[in-house]
Records
---
Amino acid sequence: MKTIATLVLVLSAMVAGAVEKPRLEVYPVNEGKAIVALANERPARMVVSLSAGDGSLVYHSESKESQTGYRKLFDFSGLEDGRYVLSVKVNSTTVKRPISIDGGALRVGDSEFRFDPYFSWSDDVLKISYLNFDGDPLRVTINGQESTVYEGSLGRNFSVMAGYDLSALDRGQYTVVVAGGDKQFVYTLNK
């Protein structure tokens, strides 16, 4: 039991140390306009998007080069009243800020962080670790080049950790998919 507890602690520390925590700020400057600023410790490519409450994409931009910051003046005045989500993805970290527009006035909610799963492949063992903030039921699928070789549930716990002994599989390339809610993460391994 101590060995399992130690393994969980070590894996959690590895995941926590490996993720970035970019800082996303939204500063309303006048009616309908706001400066969106992001600061990150290390240079990285960034994906910025603004989605409406129904999930439709209002704005999308991807940086062509790695950078430590992002700054842009957004004009929200042309958008209908409602709820929106500003999302910035930096490597395996996504930070979101909810934005409400009511009669031209902007209200900005607190930052929410989401992290991609951590995949590790070594000595024929696949390890998956994921912080399931949304509590979605998660599934894992392992696909070979011609068929699915494994499908199963990862549960809906906040902290998800799983390991799979793939030593019985033939040599080749496999695609691992972790999916839940509207999210899907893909990892490719060569055996």
---
Amino acid sequence: HKITSLVFAGSPSKWQGLEFLIRSLAKLDVSQVRLTLFTRVIPPDIKCMIEEEKIGERVEQNFLPHDELISVLPHYDIFVIPRPSYKVTELSAPIKLIEAMSCGLPIVATDVGGVNKYIEHKKTGYLVKPGDAEALAQGIMEVIENPELARKIGRNARQFAEDNFECNIIGQRIKDMICSAQEESG
């Protein structure tokens, strides 16, 4: 069996959901899955959890400056965004979501407000219940076991990113907003 490479990128803050990601990894057949955490540090409680779950040989910590991260993302199979439902996660979308989409990576993410504005379940990504390690593990497994689904959501995610976040499109939207504001005030 091929080893599937999962990738997480972000700070080790509680609201990023590393705890749920580690718990979900422990529920998978870890001989077939490798996880790379692109984060400055792994907090002591997460390190303990990795040791307790006996998955240390499949978890790697790395760090790259943000502008270099996008160049390595295409080397991974699945991008994971395990955010729990907190006020900050319901109101903000991570830039890494858009970067992973633009790379055409299939994304397994929690169904929180900042993420579900961009991911449509099984179309541009795979959404799971926030804070539920079992649901996250099942979502990851479904994408691993269904390569056609993985390819489809990766392609659709890339198309979504091109259609919504390309520089010319964003520039036109800003121009339209300025013109609209001028018309309303004028």
